[in-house]
Amino acid sequence: MRICFATNNQNKLMEIRHKLEGEAEILSLSDIGHSGELPETHDTLEGNSLEKAMYIYEKYGINCFADDTGLLVEALDGEPGVRSARYAGPACRSGDNIDLLLENLGNNANRKAKFITVITLILDGKLHTFTGEVNGIITKERRGTGGFGYDPVFLPDGWDKTFAELDLKEKNAISHRAIAVQKLVLFLKGQ
Length: 191
Fold this sequence. Notes:
Layout: E1 2-5, H1 10-19, E2 25-27, H2 45-60, E3 64-73, E4 80-81, H3 94-105, E5 112-123, E6 126-138, E7 154-156, H4 168-174, H5 176-188
Parallel strand pairs: 1-2, 1-3
Antiparallel strand pairs: 3-4, 3-5, 5-6, 6-7
C-alpha cells in the first residue's frame, strides 16, 4: 500500500516511516511532486488535519493522511494550541516558540500540559480520523537535544525525561503522534 503523508516536516515523516515500516510505503510530498506549504486556515486541529489531507487528495488523487498537532497548556488557557508551530510568529523557529512559552508561563506553579495529534486519513475517498493525546508538564528549562518542536520542555506523565531526552524508540512508544499512528496502523491492518 502506498500512502502520502501530507507534511513538510521531515522529523514527522521520519517518525511515521519508522512506525509504519513494513505496513505501507509512506510517500513524502516531494515524492508526489508537491512543493510549498499546505493550507492551514482552521482554528481547530481537526479542521487543519482535514484541510491538508483533502488538499492533497483532491489535487493528486492519491490516498493520503495529514496530521495537526497542538500543545495545550492549562495555565495559558490552551495556548499555544492550534498555533503551536507559529506561536512566536509566522517565520519563527522552534526555539522562539519555546522561549515565548517559557516567558508566558513564568514561575506559574501550574505547568500541566498535553499534546494532541489528530490524523485524517483519506483512503479511497473515505475519511477516517485518529486522535492521540499525552499529558505532562512544561519544565522550567530545556532538557535534551533529541526530538523537535517543544520536546525539550515537555515532560510526559510517569517519566523523568523530556521528549527530547528520550530516544526515538522510547518516544514512539508513548507520544501523542505514536498513539494516533498506532490507531492508524491498526485500522490499515483491518483491525
